[in-house]
Every structure is written in C-alpha cells, then in structure tokens.
Write a structure and sequence with these properties.
- The chain is an alpha/beta fold and 399 residues long.
- The chain is built from 14 helices and 14 strands.
- It has a 7-stranded mixed β-sheet with strand order 1-9-8-5-4-2-3, sandwiched between helices.
- Helix 3 packs parallel to helix 4 and helix 3 crosses helix 7.
- It is globular and about 70 Å long.
- The relative contact order is 0.16.
- Bound molecules: pyridoxal-5'-phosphate.
C-alpha cells in the first residue's frame, strides 16, 4: 500500500510552495501565506474523494481514532468494541480517553464478526469500531443493523483502506465517523497525518476544536478565539498536508496499479485448491492494498511464509505471532504496562483479557497470509513473483 514508492515532482512542488512563503502552521498567519492553505485544500480534496460532508485533518491515524471517539462523546468508562486483529493504535486511542477496549473475534472478512459484536454489547457499550484491515471491510450492513438496534455509534477505522468501497460508498464514509492514516506506509502518505470524516456537523465541529486545544476557529485573530471546551494538539502541519495534497490527486492511479498487481497474484494462487481467499462482503470492493489468503492450518502457513522468504518473495506475513497486529503478542496491554496509573475502571474493564480465548480469531489469523501489494513492481516482476508464490505453496503442500 505504500504511496511513498511513487513520489516526486508533484509532492516537491507542493512542499516548496509552503517553504517559499514560510507558514508551516495550518491556522493563522493569514497575511504571510500568499494564499497557501494546504491543510484546507487537502480537506476539500478528501471531502470529494471520500464523499463526506466534513473532513478534519489531524496529526496521525491514531489521533484520528481518538479525536473521532472524543468528538462523539466517548470517554471514561465507556466500552468500545474492537477486533482482535488490528493495529495497536486501536486500543491505544480508546484508552487515551479513559474508555475500555472490548476485543471480540473476527470472521473470514478478517474484521469484526457481527455475531461476536452482538454478544459483547452491554449497557456500557458506546461504540463499535470496525477496522477495515488490509484494504477490505467488515459486513457493514450487519454491523450497522446491530448499532442501530442498540443505538450505539459505528466508527470505521479505514486507516488501511482508502480507495475501498462498500455498495459504491467509500470505506470510512459508511459509519457515523471514519478515520484515516497518512503515515509513511499507507496508500497515500503525508509522512505523518490522519483524517476524521463525518456527515454529522456537530461531530465535525467537535473534532475541529478538540484537535486544536478547543479553539473555536471563529474570526481571524487566533489569540482572541475562545475555547468552548477542553482540547489537545492533534494538528497536522502545512508541510505534511502539502505532501498529502499531491498524493491524494494520484489515488486513482495508485488504486489501479494495486488492482492490476493484486489480480495477477490472485489468479495465480487460485489454481491451488487448498488456497482460499479472505471474504469480501457482497457489494464490497477492496482497495487491493494487500492480498489475503488462507491455507489449511497454522503449520502449513508458517512453512509457506518461510518458503516465500527463501525464494525472495518479500512483504508477506502471517500475523498470528505479530507484535503489532494480533492480540497474541499484546502482553503490554494484557499486563497493563503503563508509565502512569490507569483508572480502576479501565483496569477492571480489561480483566477479561487475562483469561478470554478467541478461537475464531486464531482460526482465521493462524491460517492467513497477508501480502503487501507494491506499486513499483514491473509487470514482469509481478508475474515472476506469482510463479515463485505458486511454486512455494505447492512445494510445502506436497511435503
Ligand atoms: C488499522 C490502523 N489504525 C490506525 C493506525 C494508526 O495510524 P498512524 O500510524 O498514522 O498513527 C494504523 C497504522 O498503521 C492502522 O493500520
């Protein structure tokens, strides 16, 4: 998914615009800017791309998740349902607000199992956070129905899924709020950056103020602005926004390349009966950032990952024992290793993690291989890669 593979003159020109007028901050300094408002411009581009009424840029995807939850009023003691397979940022962002992450099983979509979500709802549940991992999505209709029934928020972490759609709508724009990351390894990058999107005016205003110390952004004298409520600094800089502005215009080109490369690899692997693919819900189209497939069992899967490495097929992972993406290795969360005291409410709320097992998640993540799709491969390289992958899988299956 890395937009960083393809940047050059367009990004340089946007960054130079900012350096030439010298205003690196997104707010204020109106007189010095010579009309350059890169963060504002990027927000407008993203509104169009993501078909959302409101976009608030922030400093990272992690910030986007925290700001989105805060904007909708999630806080101390509230429970937020999230999947066992995600990036550590999901529980970090929830815990930053004093809320409690409730991890539940995934299904063959590699994100929230609607049944597991339904079973985890309690009177304290404030939000369900579906993480659109590796460019694809959960069963959004089923998740939305559950959230409507229980009157809880549906938040989409679409940090890894820009460019994917569900029933023709961009991922991230389906729930009450959507979150994006533009860190260095995302489909489009700002270097570091993120965005919250929503069609709800109040959530947007909250996100706008909260991400800038609670400033109300009224008028053009920053020093005279009032603070309707407490906030923090999750601002993006003009330099980062400038890079993103060049990148967002290239998103369709990046998605086309990803799709082409993904399709060649998928068609090759489809010849092997033991290989099955991650389920994309009806009406969904992936962003093609990753190709995810399943093998019969964990042992075979680990052998195939090793065989890929030996044959020079890089960037393919089994996440079962991965420190960043699967709960098996999140001992710092289970043991509550925190630099500062954690509230009793959160400590008690996380007790379940010491004993709870997640057999469905183990079943899917144990057998999954997730292959990054790069933009810089030539067609010949993709075909060579496809051949090596097929040979490696067949060889492991035959031994
Ligand atoms: C699913 C998901 N959520 C959130 C994040 C956090 O994004 P950032 O690195 O911009 O803080 C990431 C980053 O990898 C991610 O993959």
């Amino acid at each position: 998914m890395p937009g960083f593979e393809l940047f050059g003159d367009l990004e340089r020109q946007q960054v130079n615009d900012v350096l030439d007028n010298g205003v690196l901050m997104r707010y204020g300094f109106d007189g010095m800017r010579n009309g350059h408002w890169k963060a504002k411009e990027l927000e407008i581009e993203l509104k169009n791309t993501l078909q959302s009424k409101h976009v608030q840029l922030v400093s990272s995807g992690t910030a986007a998740v925290s700001v989105a939850l805060a904007a909708a009023g999630v806080g101390a003691g509230d429970e937020v349902i999230m999947p066992t397979f995600t990036f550590v940022a999901s529980f970090e962002a929830i815990m930053m607000l004093g809320a409690i992450p409730i991890l539940v099983d995934i299904d063959d979509t590699l994100t929230l199992s609607p049944k597991a979500v339904e079973n985890a709802i309690t009177p304290k549940t404030k939000a369900v956070m579906v993480v659109q991992m590796c460019g694809s999505m959960g069963n959004m209709d089923a998740l939305q129905t559950i959230c409507n029934k229980h009157n809880i928020l549906l938040v989409e972490d679409a940090c890894q899924a820009i460019g994917g759609t569900y029933n023709g709508r961009p991922l991230g724009s389906i729930g009450d709020l959507g979150c994006f990351s533009f860190d260095f390894v995302k489909t489009i990058t700002c270097g570091e950056g993120g965005a919250v999107i929503t069609n709800n005016k109040e959530y947007y205003t909250n996100a706008d103020h909260y991400s800038d110390h609670g400033h109300d952004h009224v008028g053009n004298d920053r020093g005279a602005e009032t603070h309707p409520f407490l906030g923090y600094n999750f601002r993006i800089s003009e330099l980062h926004a400038a890079v993103g502005l060049a990148q967002v215009k290239r998103l369709p080109e990046f998605i086309d390349i990803q799709k082409k490369n993904y399709t060649i690899l998928r068609e090759a692997l489809s010849q092997i009966p033991e290989v099955t693919f991650r389920k994309v819900p009806d009406g969904g189209e992936e962003s093609y950032a990753f190709l995810n497939f399943f093998l019969p069992d964990l042992e075979t899967t680990l052998k195939v990952v090793d065989a890929f490495k030996v044959s020079g097929v890089d960037a393919c992972w089994n996440y079962y024992s991965n420190n960043w993406h699967y709960l098996n290795k999140w001992d710092h969360l289970k043991d509550l290793k925190s630099l500062f005291p954690i509230s009793t409410e959160v400590k008690e709320g996380l007790e379940y993690l010491k004993t709870k097992e997640f057999p469905e998640s183990d079943h899917y993540i144990g057998r999954n291989i997730s292959c990054l799709i790069k933009l810089s491969w030539t067609e010949a390289e993709v075909y060579e890669r496809a051949n090596k992958m097929v040979t490696a899988v067949k060889t492991v299956l035959e031994t």
